[in-house]
Write a structure and sequence with these properties.
By secondary structure, the chain is α+β, with helices and mostly antiparallel strands. The chain folds into two domains: 85 residues, Phosphorylase Kinase, domain 1, CATH 3.30.200.20; 144 residues, Aminoglycoside phosphotransferase (APH), C-terminal lobe (Aminoglycoside 3'-phosphotransferase, Chain: A, domain 2, Alpha-Beta Complex), CATH 3.90.1200.10. Helices cover 29% and strands 17% of the residues. The protein contains five helices and ten strands. The strands form four sheets. Strands 1-2-3-4 form a four-stranded antiparallel beta sheet, with no helix packed on it. A two-stranded antiparallel sheet has the order 5-6. The chain starts with 13 loop residues before the first strand and ends in a 5-residue tail after the last helix. This is Ser/Thr protein kinase RdoA (MazF antagonist). InterPro entries: Kinase-like_dom_sf.
């Protein structure tokens, strides 16, 4: 449908300015009902968007600061691949203390979502020990030696309780900090996996011991290599994953 779907949020709804949104989505600041919001247009399925918007509503009700879906005029949380969410104020983490606050919010996210169902079409790192494909991951496209290294890294986390992971909280652009609170934005890559993958933060802000940080760091590098396979960044991340 494209951006004409924005009209379903009201006759006065309008795009304002394009925002950074990666390659998978077209993201704009929008004005809906006279207030500034964020619109994200992509190709996710309705089932995928229902999972994401339902999660964000749950986290908002539970007290976390997240972008909250704004319903269309007839009450839907998305339409034609478009989601409109509240605009979250703040800037990126600037200090070690800010990153420790990020770690606290991530642990609360993980606590609130233990046992959450998997995002439709996605696979966890544990699943990928036995299957080859899930959403943006296609292990069949990688050299066999690279797949073996990734699976060895993920196997060290196998059997741990699963929960929702944000997916990329170490990117400062995905965090909004004020003096009062820390908010996580950009939930497009969120899925169910082991929480360790979220806790590889700048300056080891999550306070992992050396062994736990090593295991989590290897698994995280392997995940990003698999998700991004085909570009130079993926090759650099794979180089961080040990052969044993």
């Amino acid at each position: 449908m494209g951006w004409e779907a924005l009209g379903q949020w009201g006759a006065d709804a309008e795009r304002v300015e394009r925002l950074a949104g990666g390659v998978a989505n077209d993201v704009w600041s929008v004005r809906v009902g006279g207030r500034l919001a964020v619109g994200r247009l992509g190709s996710r399925s309705d089932a995928d968007l229902a999972w994401e918007t339902g999660l964000l509503e749950h986290l908002d009700r539970s007290g976390l600061t997240v972008p909250v879906p704004i319903p269309t005029a007839d009450g839907r949380l998305f339409a034609g691949g478009l989601v409109v969410m509240t605009f979250v104020e703040g800037g990126p983490p600037a200090t070690a203390g800010d990153w420790r606050r990020v770690a606290d919010v991530l642990r609360e996210l993980h606590r609130l979502t233990l046992g959450w169902p998997q995002r439709p079409g996605w696979r966890s790192s544990g699943d990928l020990l036995h299957v080859s494909r899930g959403t943006r991951v296609d292990l069949d496209a990688m050299p066999a030696e690279a797949v073996a290294r990734c699976r060895a890294a993920w196997a060290r986390l196998a059997g741990r309780p699963a929960c929702v992971v944000h997916g990329n909280p170490a990117n400062p652009g995905n965090v909004r900090v004020t003096a009062q609170r820390v908010a996580l934005i950009d939930w497009d890559e969120t899925h169910v996996d082991v929480p360790d993958l979220d806790l590889v933060l700048p300056g080891n802000a999550a306070g992992l011991d050396d062994a736990a940080l090593d295991v989590a760091g290897q698994a995280s590098a392997a995940w990003e290599a698999a998700v991004c396979w085909g570009d130079d960044y993926a090759v650099r991340r794979l180089a961080e994953v040990r052969t044993a």
